[in-house]
């Protein structure tokens, strides 16, 4: 076993995410790619009156919240000295944000094109994209009541769990929200048999999570049960909501696939307001759709049951860090690093990476139960990069160490950074062929767009055995990394500046699409919120079947979100 502490500064800028303002399609000139969402918002005369809301509130035991943006407590008329000071201290805290109905992790999906920041008390605080009414759901009955109310009054319905979404799918201008965060609960099973399974079906070790569970809590509890679960590399991301519905990548994906591959059953309130249990026996089409179909398009998930796995005996961790002194050398180094990823991922490593154009490339790799031998094998991919060490002021470090447990890993490395920023990404999944043949093009793309920063929200070979049972883009069976080009802006950026950057990101998506080819795709949870060719890029050949199932499950089109199956809301850059 190698030493326990990293010798390198861990400035790991994982997970650059999303973007910007964006108004739902219904407020914009129509666009040939989209239909117009015709549902009631607070801005419309068909929005229910106060009496109707009060009666509804009573029917759900007073659980209706007039939700407000997270900085509202710092402005009149809702100024509160203590809460405002707490807001200032915790502004970038992921826990503080996920505990509020009206707070979102990327500030741009909270404020939209309006303003509500931590400025002076007299400054305005506008509602932005925060749903003005939210149900603080505590049980299935609350969810059923809310879905039926939304259907009856024809409301624009959104579903918010943690508010981490990168595509703005959990907020919505003038919408009515179901907030699932407080639906907590975990039940561990030694031998779980799905509902309606054929007799003699063998049970599997599993865990049932209520809709509001978050990964850190699940991992900690799993450890107590000597098990682990295929989940995100994050503390506060939801374990039973959007993460799963979009696919869900994990440090365990090399061995056990995506989160959707581990789903054995789900309970969900359908858009028709009915609570049902779905699995591969009870409704195979619907079950296939929720395993990658994304966002709130399919109903409101109330619980999920995942297979569990043995805890690793230890976690092998490795860092690769390259410091360069010029753009040309950075280009060469980064291209070598990209070409090395297939070898490293073949050796069983998953990882995350970030860069600073011209000066830095850094990756963290990890492998449950990895050994010196697996690391030596993976390192072979980086020989040309390692050979650059020492010339032209280039510094290359590569070091591995072992942590004694998964818990030690999560305690040290699970951080939820980039909160309250305006980051958004253009992304694609890259195959070994693209990585080895197109590395220079991928690096040049970043240099043509000085505002973007390349990075990797996930690196890894994903066990493909369940791929055909899920609706995620089939490219997941081959891909070795998510390549992302992130863009950001300060909160005080002008509308024109924001628009310019969003449009630039669309250009990056198009150029990236040209490099990887039309059959490639991306991870929908970490995609450009303004992806132009989104149906194809998000789901490829699966989109047609998804759309058919959507029409069966949601014939009245109650559940719509940005670039979700059905396509009723398509935010414009
Ligand atoms: C710090 C950070 C780390 C991340 N790490 C990873 C990672 O390691 N692996 C990975 O795959 N992804 C990761 N992601 C991306 C993550 O998968 C997405 O942000 C995802 O959208 C989060 O889902 P959520 O339910 O927590 O968030 P939300 O924003 O609340 O919801 C996201 C979407 O799911 C819908 N939704 C949520 N709950 C329900 C429900 N009960 N029923 C129906 N629809 C629902 C919402 O309407 C919305 O469309 C990370 C994101 C962040 C911010
Ligand atoms: C709903 O009712 C509760 C309890 O009476 C009340 O505290 C809350 O403010 C009400 N919500 C709204 C939006 O009026
Ligand atoms: C939401 O409900 C939970 C209990 O389920 C309660 O603890 C919490 O205070 C409520 N939040 C708001 C904002 O009403
Ligand atoms: C977990 O493993 C430890 C050590 O092997 C054992 O003592 C403990 O009883 C186990 N816990 C459970 C819940 O199985
Ligand atoms: C790691 O090793 C443990 C203990 O031998 C084993 O139970 C577990 O299945 C292994 N996990 C992986 C991912 O190899
Ligand atoms: C490499 O870059 C990182 C991040 O900028 C910095 O912290 C570190 O000191 C640099 N190392 C060397 C050897 O220059
Ligand atoms: C790169 O060179 C530096 C300075 O000589 C050395 O400390 C470091 O270990 C070398 N890196 C690798 C990966 O060998
Ligand atoms: C935004 O704020 C920064 C300082 O915080 C300032 O330098 C910059 O000029 C401001 N930009 C605009 C467009 O107001
Ligand atoms: C609600 C909340 O998360 N509050 C935290 C804000 O930050 C302070 C200081 O870090 C914490 O002590 C609070 O718990």
From TrEMBL:
Top-rank lineage group of the source organism: Eukaryota
Membrane spanning stretches: none
Keyword Oxidoreductase: yes
Keywords: Oxidoreductase, Signal
FAD-binding PCMH-type domain: residues covered: 127-311
Signal peptide: 1-22
Cited Pfam families: BBE, FAD_binding_4
GO molecular function, one term: FAD binding
Family, per entry: Belongs to the oxygen-dependent FAD-linked oxidoreductase family.
Protein name in the entry: FAD-binding PCMH-type domain-containing protein
Organism: Cladosporium halotolerans
